[in-house]
Structures are given as structure tokens and as C-alpha cells.
Amino acid sequence: MKGNISAGVLLIGDEILSGRTQDANLKQIAEFLQPLGVPVKEARTVPDEQEAIVDAVRALSAAHDYVFTTGGIGPTHDDITADAMAAAFGRTIDVREDARAILEDWYARSGTQITEARLRMARIPDGASLIANPVTGAPGFQIENVFVMAGVPKITRGMLEDVAHRIEGGPVTHTVSVRLEDVREGDIAESLGALAQAHAEVSFGSYPWFEDNGGTLRRGVVLVARGRDEAFLDTLRGQLAALG
Amino acid sequence: MKGNISAGVLLIGDEILSGRTQDANLKQIAEFLQPLGVPVKEARTVPDEQEAIVDAVRALSAAHDYVFTTGGIGPTHDDITADAMAAAFGRTIDVREDARAILEDWYARSGTQITEARLRMARIPDGASLIANPVTGAPGFQIENVFVMAGVPKITRGMLEDVAHRIEGGPVTHTVSVRLEDVREGDIAESLGALAQAHAEVSFGSYPWFEDNGGTLRRGVVLVARGRDEAFLDTLRGQLAALG
Predict the structure, then answer these.
(1) Angle in degrees, CA B37, B38, B40, rounded to 5
(2) What is the per-residue pLDDT for A1?
């Protein structure tokens, strides 16, 4: 069922869907995975509701080699991701001694008291392996092909460091991009299409941009070519620039 | 099947999944819908691939009252959203005269030639109604409960103006939020949980933040309460602040 290696991303949290918070994790996870040869092929954002989390993680886990989730593993009542993961994969869940030991050690060093709420962060599904959190201590975890991480981008980034060695990637995809000014997509669409037909192994994209600098409107297009042969991609740079 | 009114968002584009582009449309669509009483309950991001677009829009269209898509309706070869929408809903698609007239009029005013590539932007599924584009002319369209819009955020924003009058919303959800400094989630989790239990009709969220200002690390929590009774939410502000 799985051909090329791919990843799915699951962003969990009412605050992203309401527009209160601008997600930054999809971009940082994609940038982290790119040099490992694991392209992100799908992302979903769901609210802090168990059924929505369970359905989405099951679908993504079945469709992709790896899944990365962010959000919902803190100490408050709306942090339900760990329990949802246990439900999705039919595991029991409770405070686990290895996670509790990490929290106790972390809080002992900072003189913080472990409360019942903080112990929620040691609830880890049976059989999951922990993911180290170098920023605030409380661990994430890996369950099957799913990496469950915190939602605060700095903590997510820290946890990814303990994920890289668990990933078996594929061939790395490289990118060249060329920014054209004073060009509209319609001006270059036909020649870009011809280039795409001539090089089926390269994926070409075209992204219009607009800038308004104190009343002066400028526009243009960024052309992107993506493929596995870095040297060949480099030779395309001139051809893309010549379209402008 | 549909209880409360809800919306799904479908972001279409390789550039978002690769991390090259930071999506800004989910946030702006959610903020646009909030005062209309239509909460976004799910978002998906898919690549520029017909099967992925078709599967996602069918799933979202069945699960939500309204769906908003962005991206893939320009003039280049990788712009396949219109054809994918036609396929998803079993419609024929061709250059439509009403859309062609809009383009001809727009380009006549700017002295631009209509090319075959630009005419691609007049390909509209049979039976869809057009969405005006005040920024660059080429229209979006509505097909069943799906609003198909451009991906460049300024154009998306412009198209939303022609969408508002087609939306029948529900009761508006209001929000109050309180920013606490020098507090950790673990410090307030229990009292916040008690507050949430006491007011089941209000949804409470807690979002930790970290700031590093030239070496001085600051941390805190933003507490959010969300509900339909604005006056009552206002009375919660003091209780949330008192948790800090």
C-alpha cells in the first residue's frame, strides 16, 4: 500500500481552528523532514475532541509511513491527546513510572512541587516509547508510527531532535526557486507547462506574489522546481529565469 | 447528521506541505467566519494532486455545512483545483462564457492579451456560481456547499467579501482571554479544571507561552474562555486573572 515514503501531520487544538493562534508547526516539521527524505503529503487540524483526534490519527497512520502530532499533551483538562492516542490504538493508559521519574527529576531541580495536574503529563499509553523534551521536561511519545509532541513550537522543535534517529527516510528531494518581478502567471504559463512536460521527473510550481510598498504595487511570480537530481535542477535555474 | 453549524477548510498546494510557504488562510478564514457564527471544526492540507483533492473535499463537504478551499485556480499547469472539484461532484467542466466575459473585460481594461493559459481561469464546473475577485479579476466559484477561492491571501480576502451574503450562520461564539505572566500551566491546571466543570456551557483553554528577550526568559499562560453569552464571559475575566 505504501509506495514512496510519506508523512502526515496532525495539528491538535481549538486555538488553531478558531484563528486565535497561527500554526507554525506544519512548516517547521516539513523543513525538519525535508533533508531526511520524508515529504509531508497531508496535514489535518482537529479540535480538542477525542473522536476527531482518534479518527484523524487512525486515517493518517494507515495512509503514511510516519505521523507527527502536535498539541494537547500539557497538564490542563483540555489536554486529551495522550488518552485519545491510547483509544485510537487500543492501548491502556496510566501514569507511567519512567515518565513520572523524568518529571520528578526535572521538578526537583527547579524546586517545583509535583501536583496531580502535573502528573497528568506522565500519562503515557502502554507500549509507547518516550520522546525527550529538552525545554520543559514533560516527555512526548511514539506509538506505532505516530510521534506525539507538544504544541508550543519551541518545545516541538526540541522534541524533533529525539525523533530524527527513529526515521528511515527515502531519497532527498531538492528545490530550486527563481523569483521573477513584473511578470504575471498568465505570461509564463505556457512556457512553464512546456518545461514541465519536457521534464516529467521534476515537479514545477508557480506562485504569484503581490507587494504594496507605500502605494507602489509590485507583482511577480516565484517559480519552483523540485526533484531528486540536484545537479540537473541547478541547470534549470537559468531556464526558469529566462521565462520572465 | 449536521447538528451545530460548522465549516471545514481545505488548503491546496505542495508549497504549504513542503514548508516553503507559511499558510495564512486558515487563520483569516476562521476570523472571517467567527462573527457569522460559523466555527471551523476541521482543516486539511493536500498536495496539487487530483485524487487527494477529490477525496478531501468530498469528506469535508459531507461532514460540514460549508467548506472553504484555497489554492490551485490560477493559469498554470499545476492549477488543477477547478477540474478536481468538477470530478468530486460529477459535473462537466469547460471554459464558461460568464467567466470568460469577466476575464475579457478585466484584461481589456489593462491592455493585456487573453492567452490560452489565461482562459484556463474561465474553466468553471457546470452549475457552479461565480465568486467575484476584486484583486485580479479571475473568479472563484461556489459548487454545492463548497467555496473555491484563490490561494494568495490578499485575493482570498477579497473573495470572502462575495461569500458572506451566502452564509447562514448560527449563534456567534465570543471569547475572552487573559494573559498571565510567570505562571506555569501546572500551577493553574486544577483550579482551571474546577472552573470548567462549574461552567459546562463555556469552553476553557490554556496556552503556555515562552519569550526570550535578549537572554531573559519569560513564561506564562494565556487562558481563554469561549461561549455564547458575552455578558457572562465578561464576568469570568476576573476569575481567570485571579488564577495567576
Answers:
(1) 140
(2) 34
